[in-house]
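On clarity, I found the account of how folds are encoded harder to follow than it need be. Since the whole study asks how a given chain folds, the encoding of that fold should be made plain. For the editor and my fellow referees, an illustration may be useful. An entry of this sort, consisting of the sequence and the corresponding backbone structure tokens, reads as follows:

:::
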Amino acid sequence: MLRIRLRAIAERPFRTLVTVAMVAVCSALVVSVAGLVTSVSGTADRVAAQVAGTADLEVAPAFSGGTVPDDVVDDVAAVPGVAAAAPTVQSAVTVDATRALLVAGDARALPFLPPGLADAYAETAGTPPAEAGGEDTGPGPAVLVSVALADDAGLAAGDTVAVRGLTGVTDARVAGVLPEEVAGATVVADLTTGERLRGGGDGPDRLLLALDGDAAGAGGGERALARRVDEVLAGRAVALDPARRGDAAAETLQPLLRPLLLLSGLTVTVAAVLVFNVVSLAVAERRRYLAIQCALGARRRRLWLGLVGEAALLGAVGGVIGAAVGRPLTAALIDQVPPALASAAVPTSIATDVRWWVLLGGVGLGVAAAAVAAAAAGLPVVRLSPLEAMGPRDVVGEPAGPVRPLAVAVGGVAGIAG
């Protein structure tokens, strides 16, 4: 039976190619859209893990491009149960022509951070640049750059770079290169230098908090303490959960994702309609063969499952091709994200991160779309009467005119373009 199915597929190469191609397009588009979401959320989570570290809560400005006022820093630090509060700068900047993340802080930020970044903070906060592995010569404030930024921009210790912040350009001196543990394009400076390079108003733009809900006077657990911090902020700033940065970044891209999701849904629909037509044509062409099989005692359900399996095989091939194409398509889609939208989502370059379950879902979607469409188109086989099937009309009850694959393909392409 399998040999007959494979031979039937091979006998109609154009029809097979159109079906596989359509399912591949469907799978690739879905994988690329899902990959964009996982890439943005993954980048945001990595940024949060790197710059927020072990913080239980963050305090951010009430509006984009703002700062956290000094009185807010003092009021939040005085809340019972706030074990530590560290003002920091976390802002998107452009170093020469390369987009990077500026992080800055002082000794108060050290307990929150991973070892590599904590060491870098310690160096910028109190160690002369010459002892940090670079040179202390040349004009401008000293900064440390990550290995990725040094490679992308061709930087070395002692170079002078132009750092474009929110309101202008400031020259800075590269005092050294950070350890490899600091990922991505990152610039590290002390808190005062970070505020200067970022531009805008005075003060930090992030306040990292360590909470101790069991402390005397805290009045409950960490959730209750977070609500108390919200009350103290009173609209002057907002409290955020660092663990939700990925979700917040994905929500920022909703204006871009909605039309892409709509296009993905239309593509899946067109692919399913195409498979339905192809299977209907296959049933019409094989009605005499199917009638003979039924007359010889073949179970109709088995014949129906054979048609579904044939379509599922084509769907699997198309799904695998689509998943393979989906990853580079994700990278191309990331490059097309408007800079303003990308900056609002994450303060650094978006790294392509297509998870394994996204690829597996793309393959599964191709199989499911083909199998469901084939199951619907092959239902007449279950009610197949050998006598009717040997007659001049096909099993779906329509005149036996051909359904041309070229017309189906053109209709599918027109559906996507529309």
Remarks:
- DSSP finds 16 helices and nine strands in the chain.
- The mean pLDDT is 77.
- The longest strand covers residues 82-95.
- The CA atoms of residues 67 and 203 lie 6 Å apart.
